[in-house]
Design goal:
CATH topology: Glutaredoxin
Strand content: 5-15%
Helix content: 40-55%
Order of helices and strands: EHEEHHEHHHHHEEH
Largest sheet: 4 strands, mixed
Number of strands: 6
Distance between the termini: 9 Å
Shape: globular
CATH superfamily: Glutaredoxin
């Protein structure tokens, strides 16, 4: 039986990790969805970075080779292309991945400018996967921070604050409570019940259809 409820507000919750290849593949869809709904007062977006590599890990040639096979599937489904410099400079032998730094960077952007966190997130991931610059290093994010009009000094201060450290840890806990992998896209209305609408990857049209059903209260009861 379908439900319908007029005027209710919907939160779209994107659970992801900045070092997740599938999240980069899904990122263009998420950003397009965000741009589609950003002027809709009944919809809000929330990004929940999950802390995939916390504590940090050190990579190797075997690690990079394994990721190549995964990227074949990501590219086939999403069309996203990863650069050779990603394999050489980010996850090659002697590299490392630390999710805490880019997750806290995204959380800081969301704290200072919640209306820009989705495109900021996508630009940050592009630095790593398309340009081969490891976002485990905060300095890699600095051009993106300035690109989005943040004051770099103000951003650094917020990033280093106890508030952002605590916020990031709390979001890690929340992400792990609701998702067992990345990316996952949820919707929730005032009821507080999470409805999973995509996991791994989904094309824009399918995702928009499901979101519209939830916003309009016409999705089927389970």
């Amino acid at each position: 039986m379908a439900r319908r409820s007029e005027g209710r507000k919907t939160t779209l919750l994107y659970v992801m990790d900045p070092h997740c290849g599938w999240c980069f593949g899904f990122g263009r869809v998420i950003e397009t969805l965000y741009e589609h709904y950003r002027s809709n007062e009944r919809v809000r977006f929330e990004v929940l970075p999950g802390g995939l590599f916390v504590p940090k890990i050190f990579t190797s040639k075997a690690f990079a080779d394994d990721k190549r096979s995964i990227w074949e599937r990501i590219s086939l489904l999403s069309g996203a292309i990863v650069s050779e410099s990603y394999f050489a400079n980010v996850i090659g032998d002697g590299g490392y991945l630390d999710s805490e730094v880019p997750c806290r960077t995204i959380n800081t952007a969301g704290h200072l400018r919640p209306d820009r966190v989705v495109p900021f997130m996508e630009s940050l991931l592009t630095q790593e996967f398309a340009h081969g610059r490891n976002i485990s290093d905060f300095a890699t994010a600095e051009p993106v921070i300035e690109q989005f009009g943040f004051d770099l000094s103000e951003f650094r201060t917020a990033f280093r604050s106890d508030l952002m450290a605590e916020t990031t840890r709390a979001k890690f806990d929340r992400a792990r409570a609701v998702a067992d992998g990345y990316p996952v896209f949820f919707a929730t209305t005032e009821s507080g019940v999470l409805t999973e609408i995509a996991k791994g990857f989904a094309p824009f049209d399918r995702l928009k259809q499901r979101v519209d059903e939830i916003i309009n209260g016409t999705h089927a009861d389970q």
